Amino acid sequence: MKIGEEILLLYIHIPFCESKCGYCAFNSFTNLIDFKKQYLDSLKIDLESSLNNINNLDSIFFGGGTPNVLNPKDYEEVFKILKPYIGDDTEITMELNPNRDIHALNDFKSLGINRFSIGVQSFREDKLRLLERNHNPKTAYEFIKHAILCNIFVSIDLIYDTKLDTKQSLESELKMANDLGVGHISCYALSIDKDSRFYKMNKNPTLQNSLCYEIKEILDNFSFYQYEVSNYAKNHKSKHNLAYWQGKEYMGVGLGAVGRIKNNRIYKQNDFKKYIENPLKCSVESLNDDNLRLESIFLGLRSEVGVDIENINTKKLEILLQEKKCIKKDNRIYATNYFISDELALWLT
What we know:
Blueprint: E1 9-14, H1 36-50, E2 57-64, H2 76-82, E3 86-96, H3 104-111, E4 115-121, H4 125-130, H5 137-149, E5 153-160, H6 167-180, E6 184-189, H7 197-200, H8 212-221, E7 225-228, E8 231-233, H9 239-245, E9 251-253, E10 258-261, E11 264-268, H10 272-277, E12 282-286, H11 289-301, E13 307-308, H12 314-322, E14 326-329, E15 332-335, H13 341-348
Parallel strand pairs: 1-2, 1-9, 2-3, 3-4, 4-5, 5-6
Antiparallel strand pairs: 6-8, 7-8, 10-11, 11-12, 13-15, 14-15
Helix pairs in contact: 1-2, 6-8, 11-13
């Protein structure tokens, strides 16, 4: 499929993991690392085809899985393909787990990575065990400290709303991140996805009443600005994620990756063996203008991006403005509380 020159966003999926956490239902595998060469060979074919007719990329995101299960050398050929499309302002993010080689961080930076997104999830030993993470608090602390010394943007993921969480314990965890000098934090409420091991075991270690407002209050006090329901920035925002919420077109490369080009949603094959055999095969879902309008409302209301007023039912909008659930500015509508954005979007649509 030919890609238009306006596509500036690229997601690259690396499906390998050392272990699978109980809550995780992502497209990742713990027993296929021996096939990394075959996977990367297919990924490069997929990548070269996807970049056809592209001039440059605003953002590249390596997600997974655990991208740093692979060594920096494993990515050298991938970056040779990417190099002509990378400019001075291209954001290049890699997701990392903190149990991996700390000394590889500088080598990843040398490849061109300029933003690390580290899946810490918690700084507490008991909570890490509950979540079935395979690192400990000391490992996470040292890994983040070393990442920050690389002098690039560092973001961390934290999970909350586990049965072990209180406002006080979360404040302690977030203070540690702040004291380390982390500039961006993504806080995700624990959810048990249908295909996860926790779901299959009927295990649900979540809190009944969410601590999302407490999270926001704590991060406000540490001068982190909430610019999306789960994302808080101190010294940088995620260009890649913002582009999704702005409804920009994007390419997905790799096993099970998803892209959207104009009115087509493109799904790469989700079967590992089939993807290796034919990385260019994909399925396409046609989206109509109404599909895209609804998507813009859901994505815009959950973030600082907002929604064009033309996409919203005027009568319902007046009610939300009167109740101060939304505000209007320059012909765009913004939710005043991102935590109820899905409910607002459902009501408006």
